[in-house]
Hints:
19 helices; mainly alpha
Amino acid sequence: MSSNKTFRQLTDTKVLLLFTFWSFLVQLFLSNDSPFFGLTHHVDSAWFYMEGKAFIIGMRPYVEFSDFKGPIIWLFYGIGYLLSPHDYHGMYVVSGVFYALTLFFNYKTARIFLQSDLKSLAATLPMMFVYFFPWFHFETRSEDLMLLFVAITLYALFKRLYAEERNDKVDFMMLGGCFTVLVLMKYNIAAVQGVCVLVALWDQYKNKRSLGLAFGWMILISALIAIPFIIYFIMTDTLVAFFHNYFVLAYETVMNEDGGSRTMMQDVENILEDYRKIVYITVIFLSGMLLGLRLKHYKYVPVTIALLFIAISTKHNIWHYYYGICYIFVLYLFIDILLIYNERARRISYGVLTACLTLYCIYGNLIVGELRLNTIFTHNEDRKAFQELSDVMKDVKNPKLLSYECQEFGFGVMYEPIPAGEQFAYPNGGTPPMIENHRQILKDRKADFVVTYCREDQYDKKPILKEIEDAGYVLRLKRTYMNQPFYIYERKK
């Protein structure tokens, strides 16, 4: 008994090391945070990186800078900033670790159904290419970081339901911990993860095991995770701002944002208008149903969980990357493939597996082909424009930056700019007070530099440039970047 346990622990260690190598290797070629890529073409990731930096250096969240994400996202991006303050390579390290752990729990989940280390590896290795499939992935975002906690949740739940391996303390601490972390990252995903917790509690009740202990372990781990943040918010006098911004304003902005689906029919139309979503959802649904046919009980739990995640990602989905969190359910497909071919011949099974891996690797190379213009080995016009716009800030230490009437694009990241105010970039779907706060930063001349984009044919319709000039800023440089004319202004002395 002892030797078997030791063997399994060693096996898990080797598997985790393999996934760590695989994660860093694949991301080296597919992630625009890696050292192989330049600093351009970061959008949401640039926004999160700016906020993570502000969080780490002591600026007060939801007061001196703000967004509609939870503080744990900023913590992870802040760690990336500490690892590499002048570029995104620190986030390459952070996401490398996160994806290694995500793959590890994917492997543990696959092993529940495949009951083989090698087959579970075979099902899991191609998932790295799935996560970076360009239909719903452009850059590393909050969805990438949340995948780990969804992976842990699925493993903890499925091992109870299908392997009948129940360790109440460990399982419910994992489930409760993941729920709390997701609440502090993006609470709509936590809401769906909460369904997994309810299923686990129902299983606990059905098997006449203690619900009190289950709740106790979840409350304990949740308190251990949440209390440090609550204390921090109290000490920085930002607790009320946190609840108001994160839970109230975040919902209002989603409802206000242009293109957000308002009805169920509009959500359905949103899917039917895009063949990628049709294929994606169909594959997950059919593979989940096929997996369920092989189960003795809780047959429809896997597919139901997948559909709930798809539903929450579809609601108000104006950006394709919202579906990135659902990529994890493609694991069902690889499990099905291996189960089907295992019933015929092992040789055929591994032959098909090798073919699948090869195809995914080739497709990964195609992705690299699309991104190759942004590597450190090339000098395209976007990279040149980005560097020139950024260099305007090089003589000011930690320049305060305002992205006026536009998103944060990461200009000057190598010079460590900080937010010029709470709404330091234009809040899409923002409420009138949020928009006013954004504009007041300009009027009060809080920013050392102001970045914006505005085509000349829009100048009379939306006089952004005149507003900036009237506020006391002088144009330093204009360059075309990502097919838009960008302007950077400096505050007059």
